[in-house]
Amino acid sequence: MKNPLLLLLVLSAPAFVQAQAPASGSRITPPEAVAALHFHNKIRAEVGAPGLQWSADLSGYAQKWADHLAAEGCALKHRPMSGEWAQQHGENIFWGSGRYFDATEASQSWYSEKKDFRYGPITESNYSRVGHYTQMVWKASTHLGMGAAQCRNGSWIIVANYSPRGNYIGVKPY
């Protein structure tokens, strides 16, 4: 190369790009976080909901719950409404076994509920069938964070938290 400055830029580009990648705030890797956020924002765009931003703080919050669930036997359960672990944000939880599951695969699982959703308000009768999907597309939510933990039996728990939370009974998600 005739231009030493260009050579310097080419050689240093990967380090610069890597240094610019934000920390995810959890065991979700930065590239995995970017992919899961992109997936969320793609499905939100389908219904006209604004994009989410990744939150390292929410990811830390999600990671703590994922670690807690893994330590307690890997049962799928949401944070309680009160006490030390009280819910502060919207929450989706995924469980998978037999291999590693990434944050986008968990998100795709929640998105699969779309087939059961008929646009309208969240009700007590439809919440259990569509609540993961509707939290993903809840128009008022602005931030997403995710955490992952491996259970003693090798299965995986992935927790997503959304702020502000959604899924209010009687309210349309978008």
What's the SSE blueprint?
Blueprint lengths: L3 H17 L9 H17 L6 E2 L1 H16 L18 E7 L6 H9 L15 H10 L6 E8 L5 E8 L11
Parallel strand pairs: 1-3
Antiparallel strand pairs: 2-4, 3-4
Helix pairs in contact: 2-4
List keywords for this structure.
5 helices; signal; 174 residues; CAP_sf; globular; CAP domain-containing protein; 4 strands; 4-stranded mixed sheet; alpha+beta; SCP_GAPR1-like
Q: What is the averaged pLDDT score?
A: 88
- In whole angstroms, how far apart are the ends? 54 Å
Strand % is 5-15%
- Biggest sheet record: 4 strands, mixed
Percent helix range = 25-40%
Oligomeric description of these chains: single chain
Pfam families: CAP
Signal peptide: 1-19
Domain SCP: 31-170
Protein name: CAP domain-containing protein
